[in-house]
Amino acid sequence: MDSKKFEKIFSALSSPLRLQITLLMAKRPLCVCELENIFDVSQPAISQNLKILKEANLIDERKEKQWTFFSTNKEILHSVFSEFFELLEKEDTFIEIAGLKISDLPYDPKKSCEILRKKKKL
Amino acid sequence: MDSKKFEKIFSALSSPLRLQITLLMAKRPLCVCELENIFDVSQPAISQNLKILKEANLIDERKEKQWTFFSTNKEILHSVFSEFFELLEKEDTFIEIAGLKISDLPYDPKKSCEILRKKKKL
DNA sequence: TAAGCATATTAGCATATGCTTATGAAGATT
DNA sequence: AATCTTCATAAGCATATGCTAATATGCTTA
Asked: Is the CB of A65 under 7 A from strand D?
């Protein structure tokens, strides 16, 4: 299961500044010079954080005259979160290290741990 | 706006290990000794990560005999993510540092930045 | 072509994070 | 009671993160 996408998005949204920026940019597009004044941080801090949001695929950008306007891509946010919930509800999960599915594990920790430890030794 | 809750949850889910643990525990309750064998990390690493998930309010725990079973609280996940999307769609947002709403900002960066800079100096 | 503005990038630094090993505490088992 | 087992906590360390100041890039306009 590839969860890099989720990690990137959750990580991008885990910083107070980036979360606020994301919420603001969901209302309307904003440029770096506006954001730098709205939040009291340096211009590079804004650019760096926008880069992280961009790499998480969370924002759109559009150049207009001398400015670059950034905005939150709410559609992607919605679709990724939907995917995440599908994964949460998916009936079974493969346990890579042990080469078995979670449904193969007995409910008794004594037995399940023994199975897992054996698998690990191989 | 209080966004600590969201930061905590996003941060909790931003680590590969915690994300995997969360997905597994969504399928069924698991104890520390099982998790420590499923993922190849030390027992304290599991406990510490469960603590972070617990502080984000993402897991339930239940003692049974000598074990403590942890499971993902999917209801809370759903409700918090819903709240997050409401916040995303909320029509207006207050810009604390400038003492104004985002809808008060003109669309022209030249004007908006000037307004913001003035507000900051006060 | 030069100057000015918006944004990106780099280097450097302080703090946060995430693991390990060692140890502690509480309940279960002998 | 003594020992195991399970889980939590603490200390220590390496790496990651997030800012600032300095600098570069690239576009716009005089």
From this structure: yes
Nearest nucleotide to B32 (CA to C1') is D7
Domains, chain A, with CATH or none: 4-76 (1.10.10.10), 91-122 (no CATH)
Q: Is A109–B34 a contact, with Cβ atoms under 8 angstroms apart?
A: yes
Phi, psi of B13 (to 5 degrees): -90, 0
Confidence of residue A118 (pLDDT cuts 50, 70, 90): confident
Cβ–Cβ gap A105/B7 under 8 Å: no
- Give the model's pLDDT for residue A49: 98
Residue B122 — pLDDT band, cuts 50, 70, 90? low
Q: Are A9 and B12 in contact (CB under 8 A)?
A: no
Beta strands B30-31 and B59-64: pairing type?
unpaired
C18 C1' to B25 CA distance, Å: 21
Give contacts of B95 with chain A, Cβ < 8 Å.
24, 38
Query: Nearest nucleotide to B40 by CA–C1' distance?
Result: C19
CA B48 to chain centre: 17
Higher-confidence position of A46 and B92:
A46
pLDDT in tens, B45-95: 999 999 999 999 999 999 999 999 999 999 999 999 999 999 999 878 888
